Amino acid sequence: MCNIDVTVLNSCLNCKQSNPNAVFCCDACKDSYYEKKRQSLNPKIIEARISHEIHNMRDFLEKGKPRIEAILSDDKDKWHKIAEYYPDEVSFHPAEFVGLTINEVRQLHFQRDKEYLQS
Ligand SMILES: [Zn+2]
Predict the structure, then answer these.
(1) What pLDDT, on the 0 to 100 scale, is given for residue 104?
(2) Ligand 1 centre from 73 Cα, in Å?
């Protein structure tokens, strides 16, 4: 039997660590692998939301940074985390993201950050 094939079959698809019992060594690797795969396929956002609004410092301390979450064209059954941001620096409206790919949202995020830093 070819050694290389054995290695591939017995290692986690994500981190490549030896893992004879399953395709992935842990749930985090599984999520990460499918996330990368999804991005490579470039699904579009069909619905978007912001995880929570921040109105004051207390909201921020309790709930953390708001997340941009989306339903994707290739996986419509759950909300995917696309990015998170500092609400005092940038703001978004969910409708802005509809029709964009994950990478386009990240570019938009990056662009907003840049505008903020230059203002
Ligand atoms: Zn792994």
Answers:
(1) 92
(2) 26
49 and 100 together in one domain: yes
Task: Answer whether residue 66 is part of any domain.
Answer: yes
Amino acid at 93: H
Residue 75 parent element (H or E): strand 75-84
Identify the pLDDT of residue 80.
92
Say yes or no: 32 and 78 in one domain.
Answer: no
Quote the ligand 1 centre to 53 CA distance (angstroms): 34
Ligand 1 midpoint to CA 10 (Å): 11
Q: Is 106 helix (H, G, I), strand (E, B) or coil?
A: helix
Name the residue range of residue 32's domain. 6-40
* pLDDT single digits (tens) 29-45: 999 998 888 778 889 99
- CB of 81 closer than 8 Å to CB of 69: yes
Looking at the structure, tell me whether residues 25 and 53 fall in a common domain: no
pTM confidence score? 0.66
